[in-house]
Amino acid sequence: MHRYPFTNSIWRQHDTGPLYPSLNISESADVVVIGAGIAGLVCAYELQKRGKQVTLLEALEIGHGTTGHTTAKCSVQHGLIYQKLIRHFGETVARLYYEFNAEALVYLQNQVNEGFDCDYSLEHSYLYATEPNDELVKELDAYRRLKIDGGEATEEVNHALPFTIEQALVIRNQGQFHPVKYLRELADRFVRLGGKIYEQTRALDVSQGPRPIVTTATGRRVQANQVVIATHYPFNDLRGLYVSKFSVERSYIVACETDTDPLKGMYLSVDENSRSFRSYEENGKTYLLVGGEGHTAGQEPDTRSRYVHLENDAQHHFGTMRATYRWSSQDLITLDSLPYVGQMFKREPDIFVATGFLKWGMTNGIAAGILLADQLTNRPNRFSELVSPLRTTVKPTDLPAFLKTNLDTATQFTKGAVERVLERQDVQDLQLDEGGIVQVGHHTKGVYRDLENRCHVVNLTCTHLGCTVKWNNAERTWDCPCHGSRFDTKGTVLEGPATKSLTYSKREDL
Fold this sequence. Notes:
iron, alpha+beta, 510 residues, FAD/NAD-bd_sf, 8-stranded mixed β-sheet, 2Fe-2S, metal-binding, 9 helices
């Protein structure tokens, strides 16, 4: 039988960085940072440079999270964001958001000038539409009103892309890089400054009160003056009802080798069926990275088809070879499209969060790390109010998004119970390398039959809030359609907000 390739990110294929130990003894620090993605590592690195003693906890390994599963475009051009921000908040807020991300680009460029090895290159960033698009016209007007270095670029993009486009915008001199190499540079320099990194160390709880204590899955504890939660989706989301403030979207990327010259520039369509294009060169090979096919996390029954569509587009338009690498990532969309960076809860001044980067975590993540480092060292930062997690939770303009997000969660909760019955199949019908909802004895379970004909059985109830997880046939994972938690075939947490594994057993008699 034809077996679909396992997914693998191009950024992680040749990662030769060191493995850091897991935490096996309780300790204390000035600051604990939870999450070794781009926001967490920038924050930890900056704090350590400024004289703080920082301990960094990572549930998996550096580069295994969202930062290692991105297109790695470093740009202030975040889709159609500026006309939306002007409409909802006015020009002052829209300009602040632009500067928040623009200063992150300057910070990254300065690090490259200092010797950070992360395959960084300057590229122009383009938005385009293949059909007339009123929103793109409004975005061009926003560029003019906010004095953004860019503008109309239709002819430019028509010369660059192998298909006809209707309209395009450009922002000049943006960047692209290798995100895992960047994380490794940050980690190495952080440790050389005296910082501590513990991998395979999942945080389960953060206590309330002065000098909060972080408790890990193995029962170890780290006490600190402040705690920063930079875990993409905050694992302690329930205390601040963050669970009601996000929608979670999954999107897909393929890297296809090509014999043609690298594509100059970074491209994103604003069409209904959006596509992202950029090139990457490695070991004498040129790859075209094609992204898109986004959908609400956990709610696509055939994830493999998403990769097929991207690969077909790459071959049809650019004449590439078949995809060498395939990977996906999840993004948190806040109600008002601004990140949450700063003090997490009103009555807990020592717990901070960085999350909700709206698919643009490279610049938003760097900016968040800098902002948090400023806040924890009492330095003024003019962006604190802009992205404060304590801003008004639901404004009138946010109400439709709030209702849609929470109605969708309630729908998925109910739908999951029905699907356990309707989609249930006999375990004997499962092929090798296939998963599904099956009847095991008197119980309905999730089962994956591996390539050696062993069955891996999990409980279908997500350990976060009890929704029913669904099989992801491309990633070979169990995904929650309510809040985006993901588990491997043995029930181990891959992505939060869940912190506890699904109940698991291995069966060779099914």
